[in-house]
Specification:
The protein has twelve helices and 14 strands. It has an eight-stranded parallel beta barrel with strand order 3-4-5-8-9-10-11-12, surrounded by seven helices. Strands 1-2 form a two-stranded antiparallel sheet. A two-stranded antiparallel sheet has the order 6-7. Helix 5 links the parallel strand 9 and strand 10. It has a single domain, classed as TIM Barrel (Alpha-Beta Barrel), CATH 3.20.20.100. The protein starts with a strand and ends with a strand. It is of the alpha/beta class. One of its GO terms (cellular component) is cytoplasm. It comes from Bacteroides oleiciplenus YIT 12058.
Length: 328
């Protein structure tokens, strides 16, 4: 395993694995526990969850998995604030400062711990000053319930404003071969401020190198615009053209996609949502895939940056109440 040192003016000095395990899609409890244990045994110590993943089931699964492990050896990152209907549909984002402690109270109970290593709003409400939301989390840092503050899906300006209130340890954002939007503004800002990057969507929700692409595209297509869906299909076609390079490296296409993200900087963590023990084992093997400058140039020729477009996030605006409104 490779690690990065999380230390800059933060409340902890933690060596974070550059492969992170996301738990959003873990379903079966026994399989989920086995996957987490395999990840920890392989050197992965970064566990990423959210209070709305599985309506809290993800946090409770992590609690069960860590019963036989030392809590201080694991870094738990938690997102909060998503509002869901009784049908499971996400309909808004609650980033009100007065709601932050309430969300954390339930998270601590489900995780069975008295602190979280990193706490972050799943998304910022543009109608609520980011300073207010981060300020509320900062109060929880002072009280010892939160060790580090993170932020997700923001631009460079919002990151800078948040960091001025309290040092931001990590920014979680979409980043992959098919989505390189952070390279122009957010990534340089994060590096200027000394903020690490947690890249999610590395495999485009499992589409790169995965199976059942048709079913997954159908499901994703219900949540995004037709234009975004077309862009995703184009990106997948380009990704398939990378198979020759993957074969040369004796790697899978998924491992190549992870290796590419890791090759973009030692301050980047690749967050992958492996569901099974065998999947996380294969994911960790991506660390063995070393890409030369020529390899990276070949990849750029196949998937040029200017054609790597955002293509699968919820296509919505957020109103003053935090409610989502489709853009299409």
């Amino acid at each position: 395993m490779e690690y990065l040192n999380l230390s800059k003016e933060k409340t902890s000095n933690f060596m974070l694995s550059r492969i992170g395990l996301g738990s959003m899609r873990m379903g079966d409890v026994n399989e989920g526990i086995s996957t987490i244990h395999r990840a920890l045994d392989g050197g992965v110590n970064f566990l990423n969850t959210a209070d709305f993943y599985g309506n809290g089931q993800s946090e409770m699964l992590i609690k069960e998995a860590l019963k036989t492990r030392r809590r201080e050896d694991v870094f738990i990152s938690v997102k909060f604030g998503a509002m869901q209907g009784v049908d499971g549909r996400m309909y808004g984002m609650d980033a009100r400062p007065e709601a932050v402690e309430n969300y954390l109270r339930y998270t601590l109970s489900r995780l069975g711990t008295d602190y979280v290593d990193l706490y972050q709003p799943a998304r910022i409400n543009p109608h609520i000053p980011v300073e207010d939301t981060i300020g509320a989390i900062s109060d929880l840092v002072k009280r010892g319930y939160v060790k580090n503050i993170g932020i997700s899906e923001v631009n460079g300006d919002i990151l800078r404003r948040a960091n001025a209130v309290h040092p931001i340890s990590l920014v979680e954002v979409r980043y992959s071969l098919a989505d390189r939007h952070i390279e122009d503004e957010l990534l340089p800002t994060a590096r200027e401020l000394g903020v690490g990057v947690v890249a999610f969507g590395v495999l485009l929700s499992g589409l790169i190198g995965g199976s059942s692409q048709e079913e997954k595209l159908k499901s994703i297509g219900q949540r995004i615009s037709p234009e975004a869906l077309d862009a995703m299909k184009t990106n997948l076609a380009r990704a398939d053209a990378l198979k020759e390079i993957a074969d040369e490296k004796q790697a899978t296409l998924a491992q190549l996609a992870i290796a590419w993200v890791l090759a973009q900087g030692e301050d980047i963590i690749a967050l992958v949502g492996s569901r099974t023990a065998s999947q996380i084992k294969d994911t960790i093997q991506a660390l063995k895939v070393k890409l030369t400058k020529e390899d990276l140039n070949r990849i750029d020729r196949i998937m040029p940056k200017e054609q790597a477009t955002s293509s699968y996030m919820l296509d919505v605006d957020i109103d003053a109440k935090g409610l989502f409104h489709p853009k299409h």
